Amino acid sequence: xxxxxxxxxxxxxxxxxxxxxxxxxxxxxxxxxxxxxxxxxxxxxxxxxxxxxxxxxxxxxxxxxxxxxxxxxxxxxxxxxxxxxxxxxxxxxxxxxxxxxxxxxxxxxxxxxxxxxxxxxxxxxxxxxxxxxxxxxxxxxxxxxxxxxxxxxxxxxxxxxxxxxxxxxxxxxxxxxxxxxxxxxxxxxxxxxxxxxxxxxxxxxxxxxxxxxxxxxxxxxxxxxxxxxxxxxxxxxxxxxxxxxxxxxxxxxxxxxxxxxxxxxxxxxxxxxxxxxx
Length: 278
Fold this sequence. Notes:
The chain has a domain at 26-215: MetI-like (MetI-like fold, Orthogonal Bundle). Helices cover 76% and strands 3% of the residues. The protein contains 13 helices and two strands. It has a two-stranded antiparallel ribbon with strand order 1-2. Strand 1 (226-228) and strand 2 (232-235) form a beta hairpin. Mean pLDDT is 85; it is low at 274-278.
């Protein structure tokens, strides 16, 4: 810190500011982007999967209803941490399997039985960005099943008279779905979707399981007892302090999310009858 700033704020505060602005802490602050990206992109994927699942559940075709029910019920029953680990690794090895089929010779396959991948050309190297995208899609698939159930119920709550009126005006079934049914159902779906969003945000703390240097992993590293040969003990176990920062961060996200969903409910409630808004 500059001497003039140290003279103003004092030596202790100056040392504290220097410590929390060193390189490792700046990397911790930068890692918040991973959590924010996983939450937003995961929510986008969950909404897409949820809409598709709900449309299948409301379909007149038995096969579509069966697929939608299987997705909504089976995926919801799998622990999210298990699916979170399974999907990225299964996808990675699935890609390597097809690479091995096309790039590995018969001799290499025979010589490397039991090893994976069976040849260097079948190795698919994934970095943080690739794992982050796969993790976000995993969150989308898991919480999309919950969204499908919520949206399915919301679509059932839309006044059937409005749908029949749209058909009477000559709209085709797809037009009724996209222009009347789905726009009308949001007011019923948003309360449930807000809960799913909060569950998804909390699940972003699992990113470190895929070796992504996210806010949880950095908090654990920075808060652990730190020893340097030159100065001895830099600080004792401070992990609770870093976890407290994460606690406040998620509280802030919760507050902002509630405000955002309140705004969305107000916007989607315009033009609806009072009973529907309530």
